[in-house]
Amino acid sequence: MEMDRIKITPIYRKLILFQLIFPVSLLTLGIYHGLIQTFYRAGWIRSNSFLGLEYYQGLTLHGVINAIVFTTFFAVAFGNVIILYYLKKNFSALWSWVANILMTLGTLVTAGAILSGTSSVLYTFYPQLKAHPTFYIGAVLLVVGSWIAFFSWIPVYRSWKKENPQEKTPLAVVGIFATFIVWLSATLPLAYEVLVLLLPWSMGFVSEINVTLARTLFWFFGHALVYFWLLPAYLMYYVFLPRLAGGKLFSDFAGRLAFLTFIVLSAPVGLHHQLTDPGIGEKWKWLHAIFTFGVAFPSFLTAFALAASLEIAGKMRGGRGIFHWWSKLPYFDQDRWLFSYLFVGLVIFIFGGITGIVNASVSMNSLVHNTAWMPGHFHMTVGGPVFLAFIGMSLFLIAQLSGKIIRYKKAVIAVPYLWLSGIVVFSTSLSISGILYNEPRRTNMGLTYTNPNSPLFDSGWHLSAAFTAIGGILMTLAMIFYFVSFFSTLFSKRELESELELPTSEPFHDEQIPFVQSFKPYILLMILALLIAYIPPLLEIPKNAPFTSPPFNSDSPISPKRENPKP
Ligand code: HAS
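A: This is the predicted complex of the input protein with heme-as.
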């Protein structure tokens, strides 16, 4: 199949370039604070702050920039690219710029709140931790902007469907719509949490907040959020990876089924983050745990479909037998450098998936919840396949859209392998120490457990935390290579036509199966699953957990109401 090469009109080109360059520039800050976190953990920094930023302030910046801002901007930019490339139709330029301005403004407002030191509430912003109102307002603007971008694609898709009633929707378009349907369903409860509970509390209109309710609404959003991160990476795996590997996608049906299943099952699983929370009935926790095993299904399907696609590629490139074909894949091919980003992400995700299944298993969850195991898990998911796919595609797109030749190709290819080596050391040490020694997450251990001068010093944690920092250094080194190449490419002279050509795979099996050709039944099933999974526990909370709480105060961590009266 010939690949299309298309020109993108300047108004969209500038928009997409901005949406890629702005978050990658912020990522320099996010990555730096990741490294500093590992230094606190290892006890190499033994204070409350470093270079003017306090521990929780840095952790908030790290989580918000890397996990919320970078991912949301990338998903919108990538969605714009997918619609223009596969539907060959323009969406409203005006509305997409409005969306972009809102998202940028929201990011700057939230970043300002964090940098001012008033909003060190981490990316989950659980109450009792209270942020400055501008933190929440910025987050709302970012989300509303992303909604507007999504809404601008819908009429374009409808008109494409009208003009092409017999054609299957391109798989990439199914993938990006699945991503944003999940996002919309996830961000509605978030909007309720922020606008109805957090903002009035933060602005002083009410003095107390129901913590259980706020946490439940957050996780209603929070786990669907992780699939909002994952699905653009899956899109690249299904649509680009087989082609980059030199082969074909094993099954077009598998890709469609995976994306549509994620629409149904991404959100009714949030209580698996609250298995240890009081005030929520056991049966609802079990229901969410069962749904969680359901949402692992499309990933198992993906593992099978992609392994088969890689085998097809290996064999088309002259490989034989059961294992020999592995040696034929283009692991270090400079012309197909993007392959290495996607492939390494897959390898990491095997372990991200296994640790996720452990988390979801109710009894095992009590061993790993809130331990260092958890950052071990999510750096092998969002910090593995998602991150590598997003940074790889960002570089791929800025080079094509700005007509530049990618600089330092050898460094570019080294990035995913160096990142892999860092993740192996980082996540293994966190996981082992979390599960065997209960090393905690989100803790400034440099003040306590890894500080030999503290009575709380623990030598077991000291060693594993040092390994975590070594992993952090390797990951940072990978990102230095990446930033050097990214910005050198960006600031180099333009040498090519700015055109877009996406490496689109042909299907090996192009099944014509009607029940994966429409979004509607899956959206209805999603609504049904959400009603069953969330209405009863939300109705129970006011009965089971009617308590409200004032904001956390570090000078007096005990609620004023509950302090013992002075004698
Ligand atoms: Fe998770 C906590 C369960 C997937 C992210 N997760 C988190 C948190 C984050 C996160 C950020 O049930 C922490 C939140 C916080 O701050 O508290 N997670 C799961 C399960 C899955 C899962 C069952 N998580 C993800 C993904 C994420 C992500 C994806 C980001 C993108 N997670 C949990 C639970 C918790 C949790 C609990 C809460 C725990 C607690 O107590 O706090 C599943 O979706 C995973 C399914 C994946 C697979 C793997 C398929 C493998 C593939 C690769 C194939 C490789 C090939 C290459 C073909 C079944 C597709 C072959 C090559 C060779 C060389 C062999």
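The first strand starts at residue 6 and ends at 7. The CA atoms of residues 279 and 544 lie 5 Å apart.
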